[in-house]
């Protein structure tokens, strides 16, 4: 078995050659072979693996590694810098500002080497960029422009629709359709899609408004379980229903997330997959299923807010991609388990819903990027579209016979995602 030093050296060699995937494997081997008491040595390895994952654009996993490195050695400047970089990529300048400052504080105050001078210059630039991004972020929070969700791709903002929103216009059509024979044309009417999406969204919104903090000191809360499920179901049915009804929404939503505890709030896909398998093995489905559901659904909301409020296209792409990574990996592990045990997020229809949202985020990311980056995004867009079309065709475009579905379900989770892929 190779020594820690040998594995690290091989990792460094691969990293220098820009072979980040193999470098990551070597650093992982070195971490697993290391003495847990060697905190400083482990911090370097975690920071190095974080650098690989940053280069591979796996920002949540990179964030988890950098966080571990800073915990192991709070004096390691590079670890704080890698953490800051991941936080920037995840659209969190309020966090990266602190991390860039800690990276600067960890450098010597005098007699810096040329390498440390370079680090200081880089970290100072990172801090300034984070401060600028944070100012823009705060301005966006306090001034949310009106937008029109009636338009395709309409973004989620505060608005007054005056009874002319898509769901308002669909209501009388749905009332008529209910009294007509359930022909294929009837069942595939887009009115059903927006109607049920809005119904889910408003049910979730009304639940969120019920959450309350009972004791600020202990954090005790009361509320209704299921709110985040409803609002994300609505979004996946038709993203146009995503809107911010008032200035209290984001605060109430965050309280709801805190109320529905035991989800993974900071970890990346690698940690979540590992811990979910262990939690299911030791604690069973009742402890695992809701935690995974809230984690994935919170990532969907994070993506929608990143796109609609802050125009952070790459952040949305990251969280949709992570959602699919976790679901696909765990689904392979639990392929023989029932829907009742593992949960609805592992159903093909749910996966298709996320894939449709992911394609839209990739398209927006493509339009906002340029050069080599835009070509990479376009390549990912084509690949994911081909995967979605193939998988929907393999299911014959139909939910399983014993799954109860309402009018509009087939359109929301099969026809529309497939159309998005072809578009």
TrEMBL record:
Domain of life: Eukaryota
Keywords linked to the UniProt accession: Repeat, TPR repeat
Keyword Cell membrane among UniProt keywords: no
A single MF term (Gene Ontology): molecular adaptor activity
GO biological process, one term: post-translational protein targeting to endoplasmic reticulum membrane
Protein name: TPR-like protein
GO cellular component term of the entry, any: membrane
């Amino acid at each position: 078995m190779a020594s820690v030093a040998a594995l690290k050296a091989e990792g460094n060699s691969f990293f220098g050659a820009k072979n980040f995937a193999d470098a990551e494997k070597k650093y992982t081997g070195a971490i697993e072979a290391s003495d847990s008491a060697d905190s400083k040595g482990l911090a370097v390895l975690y920071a190095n693996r974080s650098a690989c994952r940053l280069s591979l654009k796996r920002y949540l996993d990179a964030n988890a590694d950098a966080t571990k490195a800073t915990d192991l050695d709070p004096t390691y400047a590079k670890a704080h810098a890698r953490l800051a970089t991941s936080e920037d990529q995840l659209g969190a300048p309020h966090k990266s500002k602190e991390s860039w400052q800690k990276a600067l504080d960890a450098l010597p105050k005098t007699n810096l080497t040329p390498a440390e001078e370079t680090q200081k210059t880089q970290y100072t630039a990172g801090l300034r960029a984070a401060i600028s991004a944070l100012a823009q972020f705060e301005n966006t929070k306090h001034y949310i422009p009106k937008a029109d969700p009636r338009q395709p791709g309409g973004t989620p903002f505060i608005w007054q629709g005056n009874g002319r929103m898509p769901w308002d216009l669909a209501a009388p059509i749905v009332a008529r359709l209910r009294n007509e024979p359930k022909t294929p044309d009837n069942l595939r009417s887009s009115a059903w899609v927006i109607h049920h999406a809005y119904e889910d969204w408003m049910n979730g919104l009304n639940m969120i408004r019920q959450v309350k903090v009972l004791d600020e000191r202990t954090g005790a809360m009361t509320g209704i379980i299921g709110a985040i499920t409803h609002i994300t179901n609505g979004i996946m049915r038709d993203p146009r229903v995503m809107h911010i009804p008032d200035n209290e929404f984001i605060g109430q939503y965050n309280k709801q997330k805190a109320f529905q505890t035991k989800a993974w709030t900071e970890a990346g896909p690698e940690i979540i997959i590992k811990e979910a398998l262990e939690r299911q093995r030791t604690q069973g489905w009742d402890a695992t299923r809701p935690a995974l559901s809230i984690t994935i659904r919170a990532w969907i909301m994070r993506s929608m807010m990143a796109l609609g409020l802050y125009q952070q296209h790459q952040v949305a792409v990251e969280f949709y991609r992570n959602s699919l990574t976790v679901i696909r990996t765990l689904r392979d592990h639990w392929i023989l388990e029932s829907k009742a045990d593992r949960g609805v997020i592992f159903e093909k229809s749910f996966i298709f819903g996320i894939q449709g949202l992911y394609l839209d985020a990739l398209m927006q990311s493509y339009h906002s990027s340029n050069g080599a980056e835009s070509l990479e995004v376009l390549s990912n867009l084509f690949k994911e579209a081909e995967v979605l079309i193939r998988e929907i065709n393999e299911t014959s475009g139909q939910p399983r016979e014993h799954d109860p579905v309402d009018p509009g379900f087939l359109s929301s989770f099969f026809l529309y995602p497939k159309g998005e892929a072809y578009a």
